[in-house]
């Protein structure tokens, strides 16, 4: 198996009334990304145990180009359009895997 060279870390603070809906939708997004994208190696969804409105995503890709391709997929575009109004705050970090 090819080792990933690129990762994304995303921290989401979700508006409380949308937390449950976001949880369901982001879990589906993770599944779709791993199953439908050969360049997506890993997509973990984590929930802050002390704050049910704070989610953290850790995604690995073959390379930065595979992540750029991810952002053009139909499932990503649908996810992004759906959840954007639910988000109170979002921080994304692009990371190189050594």
Explain how this protein is built:
Helix content is 36%, strand content 36%. By secondary structure, it is α+β, with helices and mostly antiparallel strands. It has one domain (6-96): Alpha-Beta Plaits (2-Layer Sandwich). A hairpin with a 6-residue loop joins strand 2 and strand 3. The longest helix is centred in the first third of the chain and has 18 residues, at 19-36. The model has no long low-confidence stretch (mean pLDDT 97).
Layout of helices and strands:
Layout: E1 6-14, H1 19-36, E2 40-47, E3 54-61, H2 64-70, H3 74-83, E4 87-96
Helix pairs in contact: 1-3
Précis, in short:
With 98 residues, the protein is an alpha+beta fold. Helices cover 36% and strands 36% of the residues. A 4-stranded antiparallel β-sheet has the order 2-3-1-4.
Using only C-alpha atoms, the radius of gyration works out to: 13 Å
Helix content: 25-40%
Which word captures the global form? globular
Largest sheet: 4 strands, antiparallel
Number of strands: 4
> What is the CATH topology classification name?
Alpha-Beta Plaits
Average pLDDT confidence is: 97
Low-confidence runs: none
Total domain count = 1
Instruction: Determine and state the CATH class.
Output: Alpha Beta
> Could you spell the SSE succession in H and E letters?
EHEEHHE
In whole angstroms, the N-to-C terminal distance is 17 Å
Across the major sheet, the strand order is: 2-3-1-4
